[in-house]
């Protein structure tokens, strides 16, 4: 007992110290165990130890004992040694790891080096083998060309240059350029007597160099008057034009400023030299200060002596039709037709204008396709037109390709290969350019051999000595206008061409050589296509433009100033202004069109008088002013002279210049049709004439206009407007802002640049691509220095400008990439994370779109069109990085969806797996090229990662489906509409892929219960099952699945006509987690199955029972329990005829949280049930009451008054719905997305228009058989419903062309338009809409 008492006392103490093995006392306290009793079997040593502890406890003082020094030193030494040992071990591990890495790296470098050496050796071996194979052939074909390249080039260059200069073939074939119509004559094949086509492109001349002079390089003569400093315009222009595409803003705007300054200097040179050329036209050759480089043989002002001197060096053949000058590295071509090649100087001027217009629109396309056009300007002074172009380098020959090689081991083969590659590159560039211009490539027969023409036959395309591809003689790039008999001359088609905008409207490519000897084999078909497009313009587009002018004539009084641009944007030449005016019904519009026609006719007469004056040697300012005063006075002279001028000049020439003018005049005199003030204003602006005061007031005071009333006659000049001169100061300001580093100065300069660009756009460059994009760039740059809200506003304005530039010219790579950068900046300024993520994803999409368009432009050809997705997975690492910065959705392609691209190639799908080995979800729905070979390639590569696969609609068979058994991790399998799949393959898949949770077997006619029974055996975790439209899968399979797969969430059994109540009851008993059930058209389903669900499916949210004709009120009473179905929000009871008012009243009284309710075509529902819906279900978002007899005026009013959250509403076939209901709808419902009031014949336009105005988010609107609805409603639809996608307006006689046009032009998202049995819609409007808006599905 004493021992026990002492032990208890020791336990209540502070605890004991413990002696360690090292000898010192540890200060760790512990609770000693109770000593054992004496009778316990304990060793004596333990007893002695306890006894000694008790003695030490009694003798211990309050002062604690000190640890022995020897023990402390030993512990410290042990710890120090252990620490040093651990450090040494760690160092040894690090050294071992580094040594292993070095060894592995050396091994890898050696392996990579060996592989690279092997590749180089293989490549050299293949190259050597290829050279050996083609060596003999090349030597045979190129021996003569390489030994005498200059002579061969001379012949080819002379022939091509002759075609350029004369636009005709040599004298042996003077009829080559005559008008050809297969209905009037037979098209003959051309013959080439030499090798003129060997180095050029297109039809060339003969081989006798003595008949054709040497091609002039257009260098200034030594004796020429060189007052202006020569400048290499072409080299500077072509070098800088490529830098505009730079993504670095500083480089871009610095380059634009350089080009702008160069263009300004070019214009000054052209003005100075061109005026002198025009003023010296009448002088003899020896007296000219600027000598011509080439002149026609029939030039009338040369004396016999001068003619003999000039002919020795400068004059070409007798067919040359215009003099050519060269000064300051600029070629000046004067519009003169002394040889009567075009049928007069006016036609020659038109041909020269056509060449400039072709250069202007080709310049916007050519540098995108690695083709160069010269810097050009069109100069008009005193009635003479001059085309000024920069001097181009000479044509290259094979030996010019030698400088691209460092060594010349085998000179013959090397030069031949380089020359072939250069020609192939030129051909590819021309082919891509022709595709972008919608021109048809055609084949001609030359010397019995086929000649491929991609643009036009007599286009001069050559490789310059600077290794660039050049285009010249572009006047005939556009197709000619078809003839209207009697024709003016056999070559009238050389000066009358279609607009490029009209060419883009054609559904099929057009042959540019139509109605000529170059048209090729399919002459009849190509000419017919050209006529069809031309007739479409006259019969469809002209009336459309006329209606536009009628509707905007009063709104825009100055519309006459932009009349030409309106016609050009719609593909109509100004010479068809009379046809457009004949369709106009507004008198103000007719007056405006007539004034424009008279002004242009008088302008032609004035320029003709100026030319005659200059040809007579009268080139003084007073002479031109006197001529101008006479023409203006003739417009206001006394009655006799006025009648003579209007009858002999205007009335006589009007129909010749403007076809259709007789229909416009309608036997009325032109003097009464036009407004003289408009005529004078337009004439002065087009000719550059300035008066001291208003000429009308001068004539009123004096009765005549004199020469001193005319202040000056300005010259008119147009330059290729790639870079607007009005934006020059803006380019310089923004370039300076990007160069400096001061914050305040950057902001000020950027703001000034934005101001300059906005003024340029408002002035005359609203449709200029560079002006719009540069303004957007400036606004995006300025946003960096603004406050939060100002920066967001600036970015929004920049986005609008970028989108406008894409409307001007779609799919510009640089604009798309800039738009991606803008979305990235918008994402940085967004305060909502979801919005920022959406903007980053949009930026990534823009980056990909730009890259894909670049690939499309590079790889698309006439014979092989490569799909965009075929290049999606050829992205370089830098491109992937750029996309990843914008959006993490594009960083790694774990999810691939090809469903929106059904024509994607099999190679693209294979490459997607090869480049992306981490794919988890792949959707290939409806991919027509995804066959067994594709699946057999995909599955083995992605078997470790793929978890979801959708091959619905793909032409796969059971052979490839069996391969799916390798996907052990597969969780989702969709094989909808796979008509060739059988049970055996699916049984193998279900047996191996036990992790399947989503299985869809929709519309698989060869699959039966035999494979479906394998699902519950092996796939017990199934959550989604769809057996709709599969006739061999019955309710027995669904019953088995429902009994085993208790985790079922969604089940679909549409059109399962043999399914009864048993599987539905099994779902209610075994699947408590089910949320969606779709038993549409299960005609054997009765109310018994619905009753069995009570209290079991508390998570059910969506129940679709459409077409279950055996369901009655008992089913609704079973569902009418909020506690049993607390989550039910979507209920579809369409076409359940046995449902009555009582059942529907009970269910809407209990389920007040319903959001979607469809009870259409339920014939027993009365007014009380509809009012009950309005009273209880106020949270409804979708309601369908189609053909319900209970929808009366009062019931419908209650619906639209109470259910204010409705987004989709259908009153189809409810004949009692009238304007009262629609008026209440306009007041209370403002969230409508879909509205169906078809068959409501009593609705009028006023209330329905208010509904449309208050619901701008409408996407679908059905007004079928609403006979009172007309153009007024359609006008409101076009003005407000920007998101409308589907519209039905059938059986309405109040709808005509104007209303339909307003809907189509005002609803950019429109995809479907049904307007059947609308008698007032003309056939022309239907044809025009089907061609101009092919993305809309029309039903007329």
Please tell me about this protein's structure.
The strands form six sheets. This protein has an 18-stranded parallel β-sheet, with helices on one face. Strands 3-4-5-7-6-14 form a six-stranded antiparallel β-sheet, sandwiched between helices. It has a two-stranded antiparallel ribbon with strand order 1-2. It starts with a helix and ends with a strand. The model is unreliable at 7-44, 60-67, 144-228, 297-321, 402-413 and 859-892 (pLDDT under 50). 48% of the residues lie in helices and 8% in strands. It is of the alpha/beta class.
Key features?
1340 residues; alpha/beta; 18-stranded parallel β-sheet; six-stranded antiparallel β-sheet; 48% helix; globular; CLU_dom
Task: Give the topology, please.
Blueprint: H1 2-12, E1 18-19, E2 25-26, H2 44-59, H3 69-147, H4 149-166, H5 233-241, H6 249-279, E3 292-294, H7 304-311, E4 324-327, E5 330-334, H8 345-366, E6 376-381, E7 384-390, H9 411-436, E8 442-446, E9 449-453, E10 460-463, E11 469-472, H10 500-505, H11 523-552, H12 563-569, H13 577-583, H14 587-615, H15 621-636, H16 639-657, H17 661-665, H18 670-673, H19 676-687, E12 689-691, H20 695-702, E13 710-713, E14 716-719, H21 728-739, H22 743-763, H23 769-782, H24 788-808, H25 813-829, H26 833-859, H27 877-886, E15 895-897, H28 906-915, E16 921-923, H29 932-942, E17 948-950, H30 958-963, E18 972-974, H31 983-992, E19 998-1000, H32 1009-1012, H33 1014-1018, E20 1024-1026, H34 1035-1044, E21 1050-1052, H35 1061-1070, E22 1076-1078, H36 1087-1091, E23 1102-1104, H37 1113-1119, E24 1130-1132, H38 1141-1150, E25 1156-1158, H39 1167-1176, E26 1182-1184, H40 1193-1202, E27 1208-1210, H41 1219-1228, E28 1234-1236, H42 1245-1254, E29 1260-1262, H43 1271-1280, E30 1286-1288, H44 1297-1306, E31 1312-1314, H45 1323-1332, E32 1337-1339
Parallel strand pairs: 15-16, 16-17, 17-18, 18-19, 19-20, 20-21, 21-22, 22-23, 23-24, 24-25, 25-26, 26-27, 27-28, 28-29, 29-30, 30-31, 31-32
Antiparallel strand pairs: 1-2, 3-4, 4-5, 5-7, 6-7, 6-14, 8-9, 10-11, 12-13
């Amino acid at each position: 007992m004493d021992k026990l008492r002492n032990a208890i006392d020791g336990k209540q103490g502070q605890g004991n110290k413990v002696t360690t093995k090292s000898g010192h006392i540890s200060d760790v306290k512990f609770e000693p165990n109770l000593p054992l009793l004496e009778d316990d079997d304990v060793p004596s040593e333990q007893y002695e130890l306890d006894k000694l502890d008790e003695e030490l406890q009694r003798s211990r003082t309050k002062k604690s004992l000190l640890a022995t020094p020897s023990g402390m030193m030993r512990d410290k030494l042990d710890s120090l040694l252990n620490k040093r040992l651990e450090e040494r071990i760690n160092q040894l591990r690090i050294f071992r790891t580094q040594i292993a890495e070095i060894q592995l790296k050396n091994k890898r470098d050696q392996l990579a080096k060996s592989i690279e050496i092997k590749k180089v050796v293989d490549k050299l071996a293949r190259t050597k083998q290829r050279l050996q194979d083609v060596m003999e052939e090349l030597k045979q074909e190129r021996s003569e060309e390489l030994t005498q390249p200059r002579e061969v080039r001379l012949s080819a260059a002379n022939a091509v240059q002759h075609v350029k200069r004369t636009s005709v073939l040599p004298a042996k074939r003077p009829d080559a350029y005559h008008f050809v119509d297969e209905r009037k004559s037979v098209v003959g094949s051309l013959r080439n007597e030499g090798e003129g086509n060997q180095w050029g492109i297109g039809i060339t001349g003969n081989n006798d160099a003595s008949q054709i002079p040497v091609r002039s390089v257009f260098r200034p003569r030594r004796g020429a008057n060189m007052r202006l400093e020569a400048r290499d315009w072409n080299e500077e222009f072509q070098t800088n034009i490529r830098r505009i595409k730079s993504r670095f803003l500083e480089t871009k705007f610095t380059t634009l400023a350089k080009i702008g300054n160069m263009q300004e200097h070019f214009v000054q040179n052209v003005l100075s030299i061109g005026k002198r050329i025009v003023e010296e036209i009448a002088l003899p050759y020896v007296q000219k200060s600027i000598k011509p480089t080439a002149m026609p043989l029939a030039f009338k002002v040369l004396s016999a002596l001068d003619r003999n001197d000039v002919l020795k060096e400068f004059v070409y053949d007798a067919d040359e039709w215009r003099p050519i000058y060269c000064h300051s590295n600029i070629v000046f071509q004067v519009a003169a037709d002394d040889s009567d090649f075009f049928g007069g100087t006016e036609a020659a001027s038109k041909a020269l204008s056509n060449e400039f217009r072709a250069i202007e629109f080709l310049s916007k396309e050519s540098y995108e396709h690695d083709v160069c056009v010269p810097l050009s300007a069109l100069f008009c002074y005193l009635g003479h037109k001059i085309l000024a172009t920069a001097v181009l380098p000479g044509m290259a020959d094979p030996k010019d390709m030698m400088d691209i090689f460092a060594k010349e081991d085998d000179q013959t083969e090397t030069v031949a290969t380089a020359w072939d590659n250069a020609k192939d590159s030129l051909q590819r560039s021309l082919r891509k350019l022709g595709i972008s211009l919608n021109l048809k490539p055609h084949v001609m027969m030359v010397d019995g051999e086929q000649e491929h023409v991609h643009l036009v036959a007599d286009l001069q395309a050559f490789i310059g000595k600077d290794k660039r591809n050049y285009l010249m003689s572009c006047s005939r790039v556009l197709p000619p206008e078809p003839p209207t008999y009697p024709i003016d001359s056999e070559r009238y088609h050389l000066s009358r061409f279609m607009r490029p905008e009209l060419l883009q409207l054609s559904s099929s490519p057009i042959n540019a050589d139509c109605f000529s000897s170059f048209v090729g084999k399919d002459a009849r078909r190509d000419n017919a296509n050209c006529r069809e497009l031309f007739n479409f313009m006259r019969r469809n587009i002209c009336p459309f433009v006329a209606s536009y002018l009628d509707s905007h004539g009063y709104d825009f009084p100055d519309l006459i100033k932009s009349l030409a641009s309106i016609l050009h944007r719609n593909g109509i030449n100004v010479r068809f202004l009379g046809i457009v005016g004949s369709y106009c019904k507004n008198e103000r519009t007719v007056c405006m069109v007539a004034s424009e026609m008279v002004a242009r006719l008088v302008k032609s007469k004035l320029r003709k008088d100026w030319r005659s004056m200059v040809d007579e040697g009268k080139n003084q300012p007073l002479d031109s002013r006197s001529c101008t005063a006479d023409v203006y006075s003739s417009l206001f002279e006394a009655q006799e002279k006025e009648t003579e001028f209007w009858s002999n000049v205007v009335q006589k020439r009007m129909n010749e210049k403007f076809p259709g003018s007789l229909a416009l005049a309608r036997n009325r005199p032109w003097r009464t049709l036009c407004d003289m003030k408009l005529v004078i204003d337009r004439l002065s602006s087009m000719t550059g004439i300035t008066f001291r005061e208003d000429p009308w007031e001068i004539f009123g005071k004096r009765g005549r206009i004199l020469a001193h009333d005319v202040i000056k006659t300005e010259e008119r000049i147009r330059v290729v407007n790639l870079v607007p001169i009005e934006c020059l100061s803006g380019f310089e300001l923004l370039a300076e802002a990007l160069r400096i580093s001061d914050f305040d100065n950057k902001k000020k300069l950027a703001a000034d640049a934005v101001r300059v660009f906005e003024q340029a756009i408002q002035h005359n460059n609203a449709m200029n691509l560079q002006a719009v994009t540069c303004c957007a760039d400036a606004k995006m740059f300025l946003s960096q220095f603004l406050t939060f809200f100002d920066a967001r506003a600036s970015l929004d304005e920049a986005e609008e400008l970028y989108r406008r530039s894409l409307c001007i010219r779609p799919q510009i790579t640089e604009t798309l990439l800039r738009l991606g950068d803008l979305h990235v900046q918008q994402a940085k300024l967004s305060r909502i994370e979801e919005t920022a993520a959406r903007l980053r994803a949009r930026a990534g999409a823009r980056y990909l779109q730009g890259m894909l368009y670049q690939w499309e432009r590079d790889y698309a050809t006439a014979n092989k069109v490569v799909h965009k997705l075929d290049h999606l997975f050829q992205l370089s690492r830098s491109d992937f990085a750029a996309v990843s910065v914008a959006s993490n959705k594009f960083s790694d392609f774990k999810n691939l969806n090809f469903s929106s691209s059904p024509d994607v190639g099999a190679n693209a799908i294979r490459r997607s797996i090869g480049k992306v080995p981490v794919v988890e979800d792949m959707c290939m729905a409806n991919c027509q090229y995804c066959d067994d070979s594709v699946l057999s390639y995909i599955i083995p590569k992605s078997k470790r990662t793929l978890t979801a696969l959708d091959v619905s609609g793909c032409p796969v068979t059971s052979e490839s489906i069996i391969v799916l058994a390798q996907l052990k991790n597969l969780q989702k399998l969709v094989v909808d509409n796979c008509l060739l799949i059988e049970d055996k393959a699916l049984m193998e898949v279900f047996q191996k892929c036990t992790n399947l949770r989503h299985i869809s077997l929709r519309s698989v006619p060869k699959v039966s219960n035999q494979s479906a029974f394998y699902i519950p055996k092996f796939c017990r975790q199934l959550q989604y099952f769809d057996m709709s439209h599969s006739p061999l899968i019955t309710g027995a399979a669904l019953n088995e699945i429902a009994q085993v797969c208790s985790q079922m969430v969604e089940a679909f059994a549409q059109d399962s006509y043999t399914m009864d109540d048993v599987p539905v009851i099994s779902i209610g008993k075994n699947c408590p987690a089910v949320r969606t059930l779709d038993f549409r058209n299960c005609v054997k389903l009765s109310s018994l199955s619905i009753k069995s669900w009570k209290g079991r499916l508390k998570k059910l949210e969506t129940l679709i029972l459409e077409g279950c004709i055996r369901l009655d009120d008992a089913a609704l009473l079973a569902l009418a329990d909020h506690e049993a179905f607390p989550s039910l929000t979507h209920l579809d009871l369409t076409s359940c005829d046995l449902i009555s008012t009582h059942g529907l009243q009970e269910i809407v009284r209990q389920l007040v949280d319903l959001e979607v309710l469809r009870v259409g075509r339920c014939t027993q529902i009365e007014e009380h049930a509809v009012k009950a819906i309005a009273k209880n279900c106020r949270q409804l978002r979708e309601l369908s009451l189609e053909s319900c007899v209970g929808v009366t005026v009062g019931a419908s009013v209650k619906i639209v008054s109470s259910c204010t959250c409705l987004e989709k509403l259908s009153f189809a076939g409810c004949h009692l719905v009238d304007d009262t209901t629609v008026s209440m709808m306009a007041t209370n419902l403002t969230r409508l997305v879909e509205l169906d009031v078809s068959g409501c014949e009593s609705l009028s336009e006023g209330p329905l228009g208010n509904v449309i105005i208050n619901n701008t988010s409408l996407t679908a609107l059905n007004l079928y058989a609403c006979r009172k609805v007309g153009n007024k409603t359609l006008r409101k639809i076009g003005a407000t419903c920007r998101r409308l996608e589907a519209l039905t307006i059938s059986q309405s006689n109040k709808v005509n062309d104007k209303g339909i046009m307003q809907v189509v032009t005002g609803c950019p998202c429109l995809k479907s338009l049904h307007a059947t049995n609308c008698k007032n819609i003309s056939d022309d409007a239907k044809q025009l809409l089907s061609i101009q808006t092919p993305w809309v599905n029309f039903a007329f």
